[in-house]
User: Which sequence fits this backbone?
């Protein structure tokens, strides 16, 4: 029953350094900020409206009479509230954000300025098509770039994020299989896969069968051969994989998959490592999603929105979801009907236009030459980090790596310091930690993806900090690790209490209890 | 390439320290012959000014809503967004942060999500809301899947008043499950009787929209009672969330899951995306919810803080047994929503909703006086459906050429359904002026004469 | 009362008459971390050995609970519902999960005694 992912979720008893209290509870620029609801000034609003002439209401007697319960604040209160809160966040604008498999690269502000142009931001998805030819033009151009960069003949732009793209890809595969009367039940997913892969396969009604990794951190070809069969619908593979390694045997994997009558789905989360350098279409891939919010730099926004277009091989194009763009002479048109047997709509309207605009702007800025340089620099930076740390931390697999470097916790053995502690200590050094405890194929994983937008100086500082912490850990100072971070707006949080007694929205304090 | 900080000199130094003779040494695992030897057949890099010009040229080929009278709704609404919203969401600490996986340095995003959840709970009349979904349509389909997990039954009943593209998404998402989905034919009239007639003890849920896609304001109370009587859940969908500033919440009317499109508050039309999926339900169903949840806790010094919680529902822990495969949400859109709603407050939201309704009342009064135009709604919030003689899609296109974006035609929205071809759905908001309504009415009168 | 027996899925069972009390081992609770929620089986359910009967969750992990023997669920531990930490503090006592009326008592013979389970654990690390 154990997946051995249990790890401390409550702060330890290690004592933190006492910090002398201030009268306000603030600490200089670190300002405590109450909830919106605790700043309520009933009857106040931060917005004014032009008067409207009154008429008879037509709400059918369903007027909302009860109080909604929203707090009233002035505009200046609102500005301060969110400005103060913003300062409690780490962000790529502040420094390296080395989360493996997340591709946290610099977000150019030109992209934001373009997306805010009224011609893009202030148009409705159901306007007559003659009035949105520029928007359709963005979609056409973006489609062209994605198809050319991947060497794939078809693309569906509409999926709203990577996982939504996976769903789109797997549904399209299932539709194609059903069209040929081929009911298959299993999808093969490597142990090292993102959790979205098995979750997606299950959501498509497939049974998930996992493929082990070999001791080089790649798919075990022999195990794959054993698992393949005429009941396998697809294999879902990330390439480069989540250990940061290129699947050397990918051509053979594709051939084996196709020989078994199955389709090859590629999780394109790590496309940044190969964009402009390797075309997935040349690798035998049938479908792959592309996270525009990773490779093409649309901002992560604290968790979204994303955008996950999917490229398709010839065999799958007829089954891809609607809508898509068609050109008739000088005129562009959205085809919104669903062809027989094809996957229908993945979402209302036409996908993440705001993200398309940003991604296309980024592509035009870099050009084909710049995008290849993106991949090269991303890979170079990751290998530089790997080289700089390999003697003090424990790389899980032999290099070279691609765009991210994987370490495990062997170097922390007998130090009393865990991967979690080590990551939290990095926070005090002013960095966002790397991805921890993923992928699951190594113990106490630490996955570092620097991206191409870090300078050599930035990498040197980051490497220096990690080297320092690794030395400290082996010197036996585990207590200070357990107490880290100490300089953040809050210290370690009690996740156990949060889950045992969930408080998921603001509760108005009990008046009697308060008295 | 202005975004790449490494110089050629850096690259040589770094390669040397790695012990590689060229960059291709690092791509050694790529099978022979598959590494591109030069740039792909796409344009080369361009300056910021050149890119800006190219994109501006595309933007100018679109007619934006602000250029003239504008009456489109049907799931995306044009509202005024205070300048403060744009300013605050542009702060790099929000814009360029990741999902708050390290809570000690993500309290800004986490507190925002907690406040957002609290706002959505209050608006919808529910007990728990998640930290957002992709959009209203995918939230709606996820609610159907969630109802199945709760009820362990397969029959789904979808009202003909549900936005047809939302119905399409339910169709897509249930295609490979064995759910038995009963789609009622679209109708501009309230179809409660038809829904109740097909309810039975095999029913997992009933999906209804309020105000519905034709603009009707619906009392969900008797439908909720009928659903509950056979052990089914009522899923209420709200595509115009501003309506909840004027009409009774779905929770108050007995809904079990409320999903919605939050674009109307704080987010631009943006040609349909990115939008903001709202998802709220009763506390007893929390472990069957999809998506992220933020919860309150304390740090090691006893200070209040926030974390992502109940994560064992999610794909990164539960993998194939997760409640959904969703990972990315609409964080920044949720932030915009939360900021705009904070600015509005109780008073502002009610004012805004009232003005929207009054503008729609004026629109209906003006349309009702035009010969040939029939207003179909008895009730409405800010959106109504009219019947016109002939093909409405053609009429809407003709008016667009005159600079009037007159609404969404039945032909565009319902595509192949010919009995919708003479309908137009029109919305009015606080951005609609007397002049806009006047211009629309005279153009319609002329076109129909 | 019988001696304690363990499954390789880290459940334990103690028999009293024809009713077995089942929980998870001390090793299992340690590996899971702080338990925050237990999804219990339904009373009255008839289950075959190895069937999934519930889920036990910590903050970062969730593990299915499998019944080590066949039978009918006759009780679940409601105290754990209110206070899941019992599974951590007293996994072999107050933190029991459910009781099952055995339909095939001979299945107990396939489970390990304390010594054999200890040896099994040594082999894991």
Assistant:
């Amino acid at each position: 029953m154990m997946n051995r992912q249990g790890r401390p979720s409550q702060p330890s008893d290690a004592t933190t350094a006492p910090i002398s209290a201030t009268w306000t509870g603030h600490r200089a620029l670190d300002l405590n900020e109450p909830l919106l609801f605790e700043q309520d000034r009933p009857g106040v609003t931060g917005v004014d409206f032009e008067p409207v002439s009154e008429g008879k209401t037509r709400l059918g007697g369903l007027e909302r009479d009860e109080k909604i319960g929203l707090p009233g604040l002035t505009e200046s209160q609102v500005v301060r509230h969110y400005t103060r809160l913003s300062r409690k966040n780490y962000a790529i604008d502040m420094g390296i954000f080395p989360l493996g498999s997340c591709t946290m690269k610099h977000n150019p502000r030109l992209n934001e300025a373009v997306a805010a142009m009224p011609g893009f931001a202030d148009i409705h998805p159901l306007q007559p098509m003659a009035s949105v030819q520029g928007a359709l033009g963005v979609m056409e151009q973006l489609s062209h770039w994605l198809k050319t960069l991947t060497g794939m003949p078809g693309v569906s732009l509409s999926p709203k994020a990577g996982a939504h793209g996976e769903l789109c890809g797997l549904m399209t595969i299932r539709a194609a299989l059903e069209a040929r009367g081929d009911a298959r039940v299993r999808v093969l997913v490597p142990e090292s896969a993102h959790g979205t892969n098995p979750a997606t396969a299950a959501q498509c009604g497939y049974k998930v069968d996992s493929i082990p990794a070999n001791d080089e951190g790649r798919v075990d070809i022999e195990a794959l051969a054993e698992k393949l069969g005429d009941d396998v619908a697809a294999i879902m593979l990330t390439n480069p994989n989540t250990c940061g390694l290129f699947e050397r045997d990918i051509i053979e994997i594709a051939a084996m998959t196709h020989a078994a009558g199955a389709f090859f789905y590629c999780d394109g989360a790590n496309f940044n490592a190969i964009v402009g350098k390797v075309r997935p279409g040349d690798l035998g891939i049938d479908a792959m999603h592309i996270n525009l919010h990773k490779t093409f730099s649309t901002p992560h926004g604290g968790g979204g929105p994303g955008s996950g277009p999917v490229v398709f091989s010839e065999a799958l194009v007829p089954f891809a979801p609607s809508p898509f763009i068609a050109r008739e002479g000088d005129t562009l048109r959205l085809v919104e009907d669903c062809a027989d047997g094809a996957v229908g709509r993945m979402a209302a309207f036409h996908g993440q236009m705001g993200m398309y605009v940003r991604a296309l702007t980024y592509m035009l800025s870099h050009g084909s030459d710049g995008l290849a340089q993106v991949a090269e620099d991303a890979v170079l930076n990751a290998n530089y980090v790997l080289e700089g740390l390999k003697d003090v931390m424990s790389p899980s697999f032999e290099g070279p790596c691609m765009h991210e470097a994987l370490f495990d916790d062997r170097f922390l053995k007998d130090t009393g310091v865990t991967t979690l502690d080590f990551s939290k200590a990095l926070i005090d050094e002013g960095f966002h930690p790397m991805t921890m405890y993923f992928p699951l194929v190594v113990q106490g994983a630490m996955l570092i993806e620097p991206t191409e937008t870090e300078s050599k100086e930035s990498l040197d500082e980051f490497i220096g900090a990690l080297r320092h912490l690794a030395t400290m850990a082996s010197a036996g100072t585990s207590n200070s690790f357990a107490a880290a971070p100490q300089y953040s707006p809050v210290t370690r949080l009690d996740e156990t209490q949060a889950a045992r007694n969930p408080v998921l929205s603001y509760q108005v304090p009990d008046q009697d209890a308060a008295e | 390439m202005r975004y790449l900080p490494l110089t050629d000199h850096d690259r040589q130094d770094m390669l040397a320290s790695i012990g590689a003779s060229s960059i291709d040494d690092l791509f050694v695992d790529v099978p022979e012959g598959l590494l591109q030897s030069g740039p792909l057949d796409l344009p080369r890099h361009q300056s910021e000014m050149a890119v800006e010009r190219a994109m501006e040229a595309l933007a100018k080929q679109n007619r934006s809503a602000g250029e003239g009278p504008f009456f489109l709704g049907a799931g995306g609404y044009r509202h005024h967004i205070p300048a403060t919203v744009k300013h605050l969401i542009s702060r790099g600490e929000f814009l360029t942060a990741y999902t708050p996986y390290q809570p000690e340095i993500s309290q800004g995003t986490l507190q925002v999500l907690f406040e957002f959840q609290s706002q959505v709970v209050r608006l919808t009349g529910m007990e728990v809301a998640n930290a957002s979904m992709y959009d209203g349509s995918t939230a709606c389909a996820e609610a159907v899947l969630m109802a199945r997990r709760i009820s362990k039954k397969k029959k789904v009943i979808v009202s003909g008043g549900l936005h047809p593209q939302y119905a399409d998404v339910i169709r897509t998402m249930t295609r490979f499950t064995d759910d038995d989905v009963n789609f009622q034919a679209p109708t501009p009239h309230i179809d409660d009787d038809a829904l109740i007639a097909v309810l039975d003890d095999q029913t997992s849920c009933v999906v209804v929209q309020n105000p519905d896609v034709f603009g009707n304001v619906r009392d969900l109370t008797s439908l909720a009672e009928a659903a509950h009587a056979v052990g089914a859940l009522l899923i209420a969908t709200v595509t115009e969330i501003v309506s909840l500033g004027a009409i009774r919440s779905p929770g108050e009317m007995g809904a079990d899951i409320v999903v919605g499109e939050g674009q109307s508050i704080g987010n631009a039309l943006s040609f349909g995306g990115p939008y903001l999926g709202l998802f709220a339900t009763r506390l007893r169903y929390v472990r069957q919810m999809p998506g992220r949840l933020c919860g309150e806790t304390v740090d090691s010094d006893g200070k209040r803080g926030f974390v992502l919680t109940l994560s064992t529902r999610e794909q990164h822990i539960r993998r194939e047994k997760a409640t959904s495969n969703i990972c990315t949400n609409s964080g920044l859109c949720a932030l915009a929503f939360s900021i705009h709603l904070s600015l509005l407050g109780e008073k502002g939201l009610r004012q805004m909703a009232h003005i929207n309704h009054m503008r729609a009342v004026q629109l209906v009064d003006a349309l009702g006086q035009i010969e040939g135009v029939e207003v179909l709604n008895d009730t409405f919030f800010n959106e109504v459906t009219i019947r016109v003689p002939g093909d409405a899609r053609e009429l809407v296109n003709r008016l667009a050429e005159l600079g009037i974006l007159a609404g969404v035609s039945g032909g565009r929205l319902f595509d192949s359904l010919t009995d919708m071809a003479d309908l137009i759905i029109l919305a009015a908001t606080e951005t609609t002026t007397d002049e806009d309504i006047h211009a629309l009415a005279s153009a319609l009168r002329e076109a129909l004469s | 009362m019988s001696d304690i027996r363990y499954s390789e899925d880290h459940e334990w069972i103690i028999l009293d008459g024809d009713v077995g009390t089942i929980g998870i081992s001390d090793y299992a609770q340690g590996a899971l971390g702080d338990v925050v929620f237990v999804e219990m089986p339904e009373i009255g359910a008839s289950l075959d050995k190895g069937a999934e009967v519930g889920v036990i969750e910590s903050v970062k992990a969730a593990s299915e609970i499998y019944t080590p023997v066949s039978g009918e669920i006759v009780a679940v531990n409601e105290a754990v519902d209110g206070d899941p930490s019992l599974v951590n503090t007293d996994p072999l006592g107050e933190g029991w999960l459910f009781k099952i009326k055995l339909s095939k008592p001979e299945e107990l013979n396939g489970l390990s005694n304390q010594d054999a389970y200890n040896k099994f654990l040594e082999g894991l690390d």
Notes: The domain at 66-81+346-448 of chain B is CATH 3.90.1150.10 (Aspartate Aminotransferase, domain 1).
